[in-house]
Amino acid sequence: MITSELPVLQDSSNESGAADTVSLSVSVSELEDPTDTKGKKKRGRPGRPPAANKKPRKSPAEKATGGAKGRKANGVPQTNGEGGDPVTLFEVVRMGKSAMQSVVDDWIESYKQDRDIALLDLINFFIQCSGCKGTVRIEMFRNMQNAEIIRKMTEEFDEDSGDYPLTMPGPLWKKFRYNFCEFICVLIRQCQYSIIYDEYLMDTVISLLTGLSDSQVRAFRHTSTLAAMKLMTALVNVALNLSIHQDNTQRQYEAERNKMAGKRANEKLELLLQKRKELQENQDEIENMMNSIFKGIFVHRYRDAIAEIRAICIEEIGVWMKMYSDAFLNDSYLKYVGWTLHDRQGEVRLKCLKALQNLYTNRELFPKLELFTNRFKDRIVSMTLDKEYDVAVEAIRLITLILQGSEDALSNEDCENVYHLVYSAHRPVAVAAGEFLHRKLFSRHDPQAEEELAKRRGRSSPNGNLLRMLVLFFLESELHEHAAYLVDSLWESSQELLKDWECMTELLLEEPVQGEEVLSDRQESSLIELMVCTIRQAAEAHPPVGRGTGKRVLTAKERKTQIDDKNKLTEHFIMALPMLLSKYQADSEKVANLLQIPMFFDLDVYSAGRMEKHLDALLKQIRLVVEKHIETDVLEACSKTYSILCSEEYTIMNRVDIARSQLIDEITDRFTHSVEDLLQEAEEADDDDIYNVLSTLKRLTAFHNAHDLTRWDLFGSCYRLLKAGIEQGAMPEQIAVQALQCSHYSILWQLVKITEGTPSKEDLVALRRVVKSFLALFNELLQDQGPTLDRTSSHVSGIKELARRFALTFGLDQIKTREAVATLHKDGIEFAFKYQNPHGAEFPPPNLAFLEVLSEFSSKLLRQDKKTVHSYLEKFMSESMSERREDVWLPLISYRNSLLTGGEDGDRMSVTSGASSKTSSIRSKKGRTPIHKSKRIEEESSVEASWLRGNDNLQTPGALTTPQLTSTVLRENPRQAADTHLPDHDSEPGSENDYVHNPQMQMSWLGQQKMEDSRKDRTAMNYMKARNQTVRQTVRGLMEDDAEPIFEDVMMSSRGQLEDMNEEFEDTMVIDLPPSRNRRERAELRPDFFDSAAMIEDESGFTMPMF
C-alpha cells in the first residue's frame, strides 16, 4: 500500500516512539537486511549482499571532498569548483549533453550500489527542477518528515523572481521540459523489470510527489504534477506490457494443457503457472501505484487554480485512455474530461478537445464513447462558437470526427450550427467548418458507381449532383454576398469539386438529361457567382478580402499549382465564355459576373494556342452586351475587360484596340446626334430623346473611367448639356450627373498626359481654360440645387463612419495629439463657413454639413480646449444662426453640442466660466496639500493666469509635464517636479525635448485663440483669477497630505477621457488598429504636418511652423 508518507526507516539507536511515525528517513539498519519484515518476497530484484560485505558509508563531508573520487553521478564524474562538469542530476538533465538512456543507466547503477544516496539525488532532482535553491541533505532525509522537508525547501526559494524552470522562456528551458519528461519515462522503462517492485523506490518517489503536489508553492505543485503525470503515463505503458505478457502466457498455458497426456510437459506448465502468477502480482503492484497517483494527485490537481496544471492533467489522461483503452476508456475516467470542457481557460478546453480527438480518431473505440457522446455532445457543439478561435477550430474538428464515426450521432440542428461557420471571417474556423460541410454533404460515397451513372447520362463529370447541392446550400444560407467566403472555406477540402469547371459549364449550357432537374434562374445566377469565385481563388491563390492577414509568399509547390490552374481555366473559358455570354447576354447580373473571368486569364494563350477566333467571338459578345445594357455594373465590367485585353504586354492588343475604337466611334456618333436633337427640341423633347442621350452618355462615362477618350472630345458635348440645363432649368438630374462625371474624367486624363509628358504652353493654357469653365459650371449647378443633404443616406453615413474610424487612429493619448486635433477643428470650421449662401444670410452656408462629420472628432479634444474651439466657432456665427432650429441647421447644432458636452455639469459651465472645472477638480481631491507644495500651487496659479491672460510666453495647461500624466497619476518628488521644466542641455535646438519644455515653441493656434479671447474679456478673466485664488486658499488646508502634483486638467484626461470615449464610440471601439504603428505615427506628429506654409518667428529668431 502506497501512502502519501513513507514508513519510517529508523536507526537501531532510535527505536522509541518510532513505530507510528511517517517520514522520508532512511536508516542503516534497514538497509542491512534487504528483505523487509512484511514477509513479501521481492520480485525481479536480486537480494543485496550481507552487511559485512558492504563498504562503510561515507559521510556527507567525505562525499563533498575527495570521497567521491572515482564514482560517477549520473554518468558524469563529480567535480568541485566553478567551471567543472555537472555534479547533480538536475544539471545533467538541464544541459542535455548526455543521452537520457545513459543518464538513467548510470543512475540505476548507482542505485544498485547505494540506493539511499541515489534516491537522495533523485529527490534533489525534483526539488531543483522546481526552481528551489535548497538541497535535501542526508540528515534531513533521515530524520525529517515530508511536510517538514517541503517546508524547509520552501524557505530556500528565490523571492526576487517568480519564474522556475517550467515557466522560464527560451529554447534552453523548453528543451529542459522535454528532457525532464523524457528522463521520467526512460527511468520507469529501464526499471520496469526489477527496481520498481522493490517497494522502496516507487514508494519514496510517489510519496514525495504527492506531498509536493499539495504544496501552496506553485512551482512545487506545477513541477510535481507534471512529473507525476508523466510517471503515471510510464506506468500505464508498463501495465499494458504486463497485460500483453499475461495474455501470451495464458495462451501458452492453455495450448500446453490441451495437449495429449503423453506430449504434455508438466515442468513447462509449472513454469507457465509460476510466470503467470508473478505477472499478476506485478500487475497488482503497478495498479496500486497508479491508483495512488490518480487518487492522490490527479483527482486534486485536475481542478487546480492554475490553468497549466489542469491542462497537464487533462492531456495525460487522454494519453492513458488511448494507450490502455481497456482499463481507462470508461465513464469513470471520461467524466473528468467532460467536466473540464466547461473550464474557464481556453488552454484547458483546448487540451480536452485534443484528447478527445485522439480517441474519436480510432473507430474501434466508438462503442465505448457512445454514452459520453450522448452526454456531452451539446457542449462540444456549443464550443464551435467559443470565444477562443483555437478552441472553436478544434471543436469543429472533433464534431467532424464524430460525424465520420457515426452519421446518426449528430442531429440536423447540430449540423446546422456548424454549417453557418463557413462564412466566418476567421479563416481557420471557416476552413474547419468547410471540412465538416464537405464530409456531410459533398463527399461521394460510391465514386465508381457515380462515375458510371454520369457516363450513362452523357456527362463528363460525376460532380453534377454535388454542384447542385452546393448551389442549394448557398441559396438556403441567404448570404449571397459571401460566395467568396464559402468557396474559400471549402477550398482545402473540396478542390476537386470546386475546380470542375467543365461540369459547371455543362450545367449552364446544356439541357438537362433524363433524371436531372432544370436549374432555376436563381440557381443559375448562384452557380455563375460561385464559379467566378472559384476562378479567382485558383488564379490568385490567396483568401478573399477580410480573411487572413494579407498575401503570403507561396511555396514552390503552391506556385506551380497556381500556374497549372490558371492555364487550365484559361484554356477552358477561352472557348466557353463567349457561349455563356451569348446565352445570358440579356441578364445583367449574370453578364456582370461572367465578364470578371477574363481578368484571370493567361492572355498569352490566345496567341500561343492560335485561338484568335475565340478572342473575336469574345469581343463580339462584349460589344453586344454594351449595346444591350445601360446598367453601371455591366458597363464598368465591359470597360474593365477591354482595359485588360488592351494591355501593351500582350500581342492581342492591336486586335482589341481596333474593336474598342470602332465601338467608341459608334457610341460617340450616336451621342453627338442625340445631344443635338435634345438641344434643338429643348422643352419639347420627349422621353425617347432623353433616353438616347442618357444611354449613350452612360456608356461613354463608364468607358472614359478606364480608357483615355480625349481624342473624341467628349467634354464639349457634356459642357453644352450642362450649360443648357442651367439656362433652361429642365435638364434631368441623371443626365447632369453623368455629364459631370464624363467631364471630370476628361479633365483627369488630360492632367495625366501633362504630368507624364512635356506639355507645351498652349496645352497648359487650354487645360486651364477647360478646368475654369468646368468649375464655374459646377458652382452654378450647386447653387441652383441648394444645400439639400439627406443626413440619413448611406453616403453621409459612410462619411461619418470613416470620420469615426479616423478619430480612433488618434489613440487615447490626447496630450500628444492635442495640437493636431485642434488644428483639424480650426480648418474644419473655416471650411464649413468658407462660402456664403447666395440666397442670403438666413440660409446655411453650402459647406455647413461638414460640421456633422467634424463632430466625430470632438471627443478627441481636451475639455479645456473645447471652450477655445467653441469660441472660435462663435466668431463665424451670427446671432440668427444660434437661434435657428430647422433641419438644414442640424449640423451646426450637433457640432456645437459636441463642444458643449463634457460628461458633467461643470464641464458645460467651463465654456462660460473658466474656473468651474478647476474648482470641481480640486474639490474632488482628498487629503491636504503639504506646506512645501504651496509654492508649487502658486506657480500653477500663475501659469493658469498667464493662460487666461494670454501673455507672450503662453503655455497651454496640458503641456505642463504632460507626457507622463496622460493615463496614470504619477507621484513625484517636489524637487524633481520643480526641475521638470529645466532645459536639457544635451538636446539640440529644435529637438523633441526642446519642443516639450520651451513655452514659446508650444504656442500654437490654441494659444493664439486663448490670447484673443482673454483680451476681449479682461474683466471676466480677472474675476476668474480672483476666484481661483480664493478657492485655492480655501482648499489648501484640506490638501496638505496630498503627495500628488495638482494638474487637474491633465489628470482628468485619463479617466474622464475614457468615459467619453465609451459613451461616444461604444459601437466602434472593436476596431483593432495596429498599436505599434499608431504609437509611432503619434510620436512623430508635429504641428507642421497641417500647414507648412504659415511660419512665425520667435524672439530668438528660431523659425517654426505654426497653425
Automatic annotation (TrEMBL):
Coiled coil spans: 262-292
Region (Disordered), start-end ranges: 1-86, 903-944, 975-994
Ranges for domain SCD: 298-383
Composition skew (Basic residues), residue ranges: 923-935
InterPro entries: ARM-type_fold, Cohesin_Scc3/SA, HEAT_SCC3-SA, SCD, STAG
A family per Pfam: SCD
Cell cycle found in the keyword field: yes
GO (cellular component) term, any one: cohesin complex
Any one GO biological process: cell division
Annotated Low complexity bias: 910-922
Keywords assigned: Cell cycle, Cell division, Chromosome, Chromosome partition, Coiled coil, Nucleus
Compartmental location: Nucleus; Chromosome; Chromosome, Centromere
Entry superkingdom: Eukaryota
GO molecular function: chromatin binding
UniProt record similarity statement: Belongs to the SCC3 family.
PANTHER family membership: COHESIN SUBUNIT SA-1, STROMAL ANTIGEN
Role played: Component of cohesin complex, a complex required for the cohesion of sister chromatids after DNA replication. The cohesin complex apparently forms a large proteinaceous ring within which sister chromatids can be trapped. At anaphase, the complex is cleaved and dissociates from chromatin, allowing sister chromatids to segregate.
Quaternary organization: Part of the cohesin complex which is composed of a heterodimer between a SMC1 protein (SMC1A or SMC1B) and SMC3, which are attached via their hinge domain, and RAD21 which link them at their heads, and one STAG protein.
Protein name from the UniProt record: Cohesin subunit SA
Organism for this UniProt entry: Oncorhynchus mykiss (Rainbow trout)
